[in-house]
Amino acid sequence: MANAAAARRGSLSMMATVATPGAASVKRLTSPEEELLKNTDVFIFDCDGVIWRGDSLIDKVPSVLEKLRAMGKRMFFVTNNSTKSRKGYKSKFSSLGLDVQDEEIFSSSFAAAAYLEQKNFKATGKKVYVIGEVGIGEELDLIGVPHIGGPADKGKTIELTPGYALEIDHDVGAVVVGFDRHFNYHKIQYAQLAINENGAEFIATNMDAVTHLTDAQEWAGAGSMVGCIKGCTGKEPTLVGKPSPLMIDYIVYKYKIPKDKICMVGDRLDTDILFGKDNGLKTVLTLSGVTSEEKLLGAANKIHPDFFVSSIADFFP
């Protein structure tokens, strides 16, 4: 009977690991306590596609977070979405019935401000030109860095008449590009001139190709805006959101947490999982967002999480 039981365990183990042609094995999380929970002190969760889709909570998320807190696990919520500041995200968590503290939230709008603060940008007396929404400006206000553009440039147009030249503020020392629902040619040209003629630093909040603005479909992400500015300047941006190490370095430094006790949980291979792997963290991919099981297991995929789950509800089956 012991041999039969061992054979059954071996069979289950083989079923849990999925081999893909030309790629490393990818393992579905089947024993959360043994495989993940007992050796992890901190969980870093992406938000879009993991905690919510659009303005809708993903099933069983509140109970999972409650159970993790009851186990003494520390949690952080890291999002590449720059449309809101940490204050704005705190309001969203509260509106969805989730009790999350301000210091547990890290948005790419905050990462952009933290990067500029780290560089002592304020001391230069320069301004930031923003392509993005209110979140970036709110975070810049908190560190006392002046900024222009952003929502104020919504709807601005350019008339290409003979002899016309767009005038820009020559005190612009950085251009921060994030997701912008009101992206337009005025913003493109302003950023191009600031970077190419002023020598302003080009900073990207993230390079996400698509994002979850609603729960109905995927929408073009900030990567489309950043790509446009890359195209007209010929410059590569400084990336401050995932998979850049800036946010994880901040968390490790401030909270003195060893990286091998941290797990990154996300729905994107090229940002969340790459972010975790590049920074020495455990990684879990959830299929509740933009990545399908077919893409994860496909031979073309070269980014492999430690585990994958259907959603974080699988942490407590």
UniProtKB/TrEMBL annotation:
<keyword id="KW-0378">Hydrolase</keyword>
<feature type="binding site">
    <location>
        <position position="242"/>
    </location>
    <ligand>
        <name>substrate</name>
    </ligand>
</feature>
<dbReference type="Pfam" id="PF13242">
    <property type="entry name" value="Hydrolase_like"/>
</dbReference>
<keyword id="KW-0479">Metal-binding</keyword>
<dbReference type="GO" id="GO:0046872">
    <property type="term" value="F:metal ion binding"/>
</dbReference>
<feature type="binding site">
    <location>
        <position position="267"/>
    </location>
    <ligand>
        <name>Mg(2+)</name>
    </ligand>
</feature>
<dbReference type="InterPro" id="IPR036412">
    <property type="entry name" value="HAD-like_sf"/>
</dbReference>
<protein>
    <recommendedName>
        <fullName>Phosphoglycolate phosphatase</fullName>
    </recommendedName>
</protein>
<feature type="binding site">
    <location>
        <position position="46"/>
    </location>
    <ligand>
        <name>Mg(2+)</name>
    </ligand>
</feature>
<keyword id="KW-0460">Magnesium</keyword>
<dbReference type="Pfam" id="PF13344">
    <property type="entry name" value="Hydrolase_6"/>
</dbReference>
<dbReference type="InterPro" id="IPR023214">
    <property type="entry name" value="HAD_sf"/>
</dbReference>
<dbReference type="InterPro" id="IPR006349">
    <property type="entry name" value="PGP_euk"/>
</dbReference>
<feature type="active site" description="Proton donor">
    <location>
        <position position="48"/>
    </location>
</feature>
<dbReference type="GO" id="GO:0005737">
    <property type="term" value="C:cytoplasm"/>
</dbReference>
<dbReference type="InterPro" id="IPR006357">
    <property type="entry name" value="HAD-SF_hydro_IIA"/>
</dbReference>
<feature type="binding site">
    <location>
        <position position="48"/>
    </location>
    <ligand>
        <name>Mg(2+)</name>
    </ligand>
</feature>
<feature type="active site" description="Nucleophile">
    <location>
        <position position="46"/>
    </location>
</feature>
<dbReference type="GO" id="GO:0016791">
    <property type="term" value="F:phosphatase activity"/>
</dbReference>
